[in-house]
Write a structure and sequence with these properties.
It is a single chain. The chain is mainly alpha-helical and 209 residues long. It has eight helices and two strands; from the N terminus they run αααααααββα. It folds into two domains: 5-59, no CATH class; 65-206, Four Helix Bundle (Hemerythrin (Met), subunit A) (Up-down Bundle), CATH 1.20.120. The chain has a two-stranded antiparallel sheet with strand order 1-2. A hairpin with a 3-residue loop joins strand 1 and strand 2. The longest helix is centred in the C-terminal third of the chain and has 18 residues, at 189-206.
């Protein structure tokens, strides 16, 4: 299910409100009293639950069943022979990378934090999750998730592909609130599901899917 506003952090809600104002031209700015939950400060744009749900659909997230199914369909179309448009991984290594990366918020794989400042973390999180641009190729991968450097033996491609498809669904249903991302720091569940869609989309585009 799509996250309701009460599950979103103050920063997350502020970002969504900012983006919503770009997509919903008919919204009018109006002064509003501080809500009982303390999330909306006085003078901010009031955004309804319907507006947030519509925005999250525009932004694409694994919280949306349709977006999840589309990622799973694209994964099912991937073949071991698909060639990469950038990077060093082959298609099988990419599938393993997706699975390992989803294992981080699921608590199955531990990855050390990148050595960046809190301000860089905030900027990276904002840019990666909310700026409406495709992720650039060849962003540094953490050593624990770098399939080329790890050079682990690959098993059966179809088995690993089915695992990635199943993990995407598992991620969409899991309790992820507050789990750490190596570059973003602590991340909300809504942000993890947004990341999950963007990360999978990035690597599927890498292989023409």
């Amino acid at each position: 299910m799509i996250q309701s506003p009460r599950h979103m952090s103050r920063i997350s809600r502020g970002i969504v409100i900012f983006e919503a104002s770009r997509h919903r031209a008919f919204w009018q700015e109006k002064a509003c009293r501080r809500e009982s939950d303390g999330i909306l400060p006085r003078g901010r744009l009031s955004v309804s639950s319907f507006d947030l749900i519509l925005l999250m659909r525009i932004m694409r997230t694994l919280a949306n069943p349709g977006d999840l199914q589309l990622i799973q369909l694209r994964l099912s179309m991937l073949t071991e022979r698909d060639a990469a448009a950038w990077g060093r991984m082959n298609a099988h290594q990419m599938i393993r990378h997706l699975s390992d990366s989803m294992g981080v918020p699921l608590g199955e794989i531990r990855v050390a934090d990148a050595e960046v400042s809190w301000l860089q973390r905030l900027a990276l999180k904002w840019a990666a999750l909310y700026v409406p641009l495709k992720w650039r190729p060849n962003f540094p991968t953490r050593p624990e998730l770098d399939q080329c450097s790890l050079n682990l033996p690959l098993g059966d491609f179809e088995t690993d592909r089915r695992k990635a498809i199943a993990l995407a669904e598992h991620l969409s249903e899991a309790e992820l609130e507050g789990r750490r991302h190596p570059y973003f720091g602590a991340v909300t569940r809504a942000q993890w599901l947004r990341w999950g869609w963007l990360h999978a989309d990035h690597h599927l585009r890498q292989f023409g899917r």
